[in-house]
Fold each of these.
Amino acid sequence: MADILTERVSFPANGEEMPGYLARPEGDGPFPGVIVVQEWWGLDDHIQDVCRRFAREGYAALAPDLYRGKVTSEPDEAESSGLTVLGEAALLAALDRARTGRMGEPIKAS
């Protein structure tokens, strides 16, 4: 199993700083990269684990924290919080969609 490094990061997105979680192989890059889009629950342990699994396979994996630290396990809270729409808008504003791939569950918008 490859050694990896993980860290909380921030990066410029649409004129402000976007927090995120980065996992990458240990050592000198550059590495191929993937953006891991969180589910509507937020940047939870599962999404961080997905990033770590990509890193063990040789990728730098970044999960933007679209809800800025808020996490839930309750469907009603996730749906009614309004965070789903804000999160998707923040993600789309931060990406060059012509040069970006993504994987993850769809974020439901009410």
Amino acid sequence: MIAEGVHGAVTGSEDEWVTHMLYADDLTLLANAPDAMHTMLNRLVVYTHSKHLTIIPAKSEVVRFNSAAQFSSAHFYVSQCCFNVL
């Protein structure tokens, strides 16, 4: 649902893309482009609201592994709070 139609991060094989990883109550979203990350975050907000869950931007961050210019100027928001971009 959150990653439907979105390309995630390349895994080393052109046929395999990873969009998210789950561990206990932690979620990691993966994307190669800011627009894909924005799409997944927007869908995640809708999902969490429908389940009465909360995303806490102060406990969340965006880790940029790609040094391309498209990520260097990207900002990611949830409920008008900006994620820290590393």
Amino acid sequence: MKALSEIVKDQIGSFMDAKDLDIKTLAAKIGVTESKLRNEMNTVGEVGYTVLESLLEKYPELSTEWLFRGEGEMFKLKQEEKSNRTELECLQVMSKHLENISKSLSVIANKRNRN
């Protein structure tokens, strides 16, 4: 099992890839020096609190669950996206129910036609 520090470093690397950022650019965006970020990413130790706090403040859409545990999606869903996803799921369930009702009605109609 990977240590938490290694998971976090891997996740930051994946985040940088997704955002097309290099260490120099990310460091500038989160307000730390390039050498600080590079050292924390490349040494055996942990990424420090300052870097993590700055990263999460600059990118509030970044999921902490994903960053620290490697679970879930990289980016948080906005409330509207969550709502849309829920509505879509409801529509899919309703569509399935209507399909089943339609099949049942067809079976009943076929039985009546035979009699």
